[in-house]
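It would be a great kindness if you could assist me with a short task in structural biology. The full record is reproduced below for your convenience:
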Amino acid sequence: MDTKIEDYVVNSDSVEWRPLKENGIDTKGIYIKALRYDKNGRPPSFLLRFEEGANYPYHNHPAGEELFVLEGTCIIEGAVLKKGDYLYTPPSFKHSVKTETGCVLYFIVPEEVEILE
């Protein structure tokens, strides 16, 4: 198979923001740009945009998570993360995400989260 590095480049400006939809979860004000899909069609790498006041409920990360703040600020377990901050969430760590100002976050989530609320 003949592939080039360009086959793996994603221009995020060409990907549309779509409302985040998850069954049984209030995701109002949260939008997603999927950057990569795994073999099951789930995006382990994605951008989330939170509108001012939006929040994602308390949840568990069975396989951990990586998060980088691209814009704005968010609050995770009382810690205020701002533009340029990076968070590694170890496996089985539980938290929620909220923002008062709005934010754009880059995530790597290797395994589906478990909602706990």
